[in-house]
Specification:
The chain is 53% helix and 0% strand. By secondary structure, it is an all-alpha fold. It has a domain of 30 residues.
Amino acid sequence: MVFKRKKKQTTLKNLKSLFFPDGGWRRAIEYLSHRIKRLQDSPHRIALGLSFGVFASFSPLFGFHFVLGALLAYVFKANIFASILGTFFLNPITFPFIAAISFKTGIFILDQFFNFKNERNSSDTWILHSEIKGLGVFEQFI
């Protein structure tokens, strides 16, 4: 590795720099914009990768946004790095809005408000409500 620290940083310092970059947020955003400008790919593939990343950040699979964005970019031959940058659309500021939209979409699909307190096992609730929007087809595979 060419650029390596002489002293290894502590875990606490690494965690702090995750939320508060050493050079500041403005410098971090400028760095990401320069990285996007210097990508060696066609503008179409970069835009497609970025759009897949933003699409993946809206999915309710919290924690798998990077994987989903990179997988979509790989399948459709888009820029994988741009898709990973696109997943940064979901951040602590936009997270409550995206989570609320995902929750409202789930309520629309299930056609009712779901209360976790009344269910004994929340992992099989999709089976209980699968007939509502025509999803009963999947019940035969269980």
